[in-house]
Amino acid sequence: MIRRCLSCQRKSLSVPHRKFHLNFGATGIPHPDKALKGGEDGFFADPKNRTFGVADGVGGSANATTDPGLFSRGMLRHIRRSLSEEPARPSLCDALRDAATALANEQIGGSSTVLLGRLDQNRLQIANIGDSACMVLRPSPRRFNSSIPGKKTTVNWPRIVLRTNDQTHYFNCPYQVCCDSFGQILKTNQYDFLEVEVQDGDIVIAATDGVFDNIFDQAMQLLVMKHFVNAQDVNAAALANAIATEAMSIGQSQDDPKTLTPFSEGARSEGYEYAGGKLDDVAVVVGLVVGNDGAVDQDPKAILHNLD
After folding, report:
1. Residue 288 phi, psi (nearest 5)
2. With contact defined as beta carbons under 8 Å apart, do 35 and 132 qualify?
3. DSSP secondary structure letter of residue 138
4. Distance in Å from the first CA to the final CA of the chain
5. Distances (CA, A) of 261 to 6, 170, 252
6. Of 29, 114, 295, 308, which one has the greatest count of Cβ atoms within 10 A?
7. What is the pLDDT of residues 28-85, one digit of tens each?
């Protein structure tokens, strides 16, 4: 895990590479008890600038006068605006700093996790604070035992190329930012920055903890595999919706001892009694990596978000 990278301070020094695009799908589903206010998670996906982000307003910061959803979505609005500035093209870290400055002036109550991504030519950059997560999956031939004894079948299995790790102070207490702490968190490098070279056909999934608390990584791989025959057949919007729906379905199995989830296993490993799913807001962004010669099936100006 890299805390700091030169890419946060200046543009990549690598020689020019083939440029890729991201075909996006994105969705959010609020916790049923928070549906009227739209939940507390935010997301955006910007095809033109090849950037995306998810943020989880921390429920523990809510009170009678504070809505963490207003903070998470307001933060992402500042970040998206900063990342779209031309010709400067600020880095992810610069966009976080811009948002920290703006929020310090606005003094919006609440706190949030945040995960950002940008595709720069053939390199995907990720900045993360908290327990949202990002996976890069690469469909690759893999043999599995078939239903016929003694025979095997070969499928395009989406193997994990990159996966972020949670940042937590203790169980179920993620690193988070608020108006007063945001700038200091960035100054003391309390964020993770990762970079990976992508290929045509890679699948990027970024989501809040409402997804990854309920879906194991291998189950996510299986879910992705079921949605494509080859990379060109993947529908990003349909996959994002399927992931969000699956997470909410599992989350509704709270207190069910027969339902194993990453959250319940994590709780038991820390000495807590917990069974079943964890019902929560979910926000999901799916990005399909497509080369210049591939089909870009969406308007580059059509930004997907729930920030209004």
Report:
1. -100, 125
2. no
3. E
4. 34
5. 37, 18, 12
6. 114
7. 999 999 999 999 999 999 999 999 999 999 998 888 889 999 999 999 999 999 999 8
- Look up residue 150 and give its two tokens: 């003694």
Mean pLDDT estimate for the chain? 90
Tokens of 232: 């060109």
Predicted local distance difference test score (pLDDT) of residue 300: 67
Rounded Cα–Cα distance for residues 212 and 131 (Å): 9
Question: pTM of this prediction?
Answer: 0.91
Output the six-digit token pair for 116. Answer: 């950002």
Which residue matches tokens 């469909």?
Answer: 139
Helix axes 217-225, 236-251, angle to 10 degrees: 140
Phi, psi of 81 (to 5 degrees): -65, -40
State yes or no: pLDDT of 245 exceeds 60. yes
**Residues 6+ away with beta carbon under 8 Å from 114:** 53, 54, 55, 72, 75, 76, 79, 96, 127, 128, 129, 130, 132, 177
CA 264: distance to chain centroid?
A: 21
Tokens 């307001």 -> residue? 74
The one-letter amino acid code at 45 reads A
How far apart, in whole angstroms, are the C-alpha atoms of residue 140 and residue 292?
A: 21
| Paired tokens of 32 | 């049923």
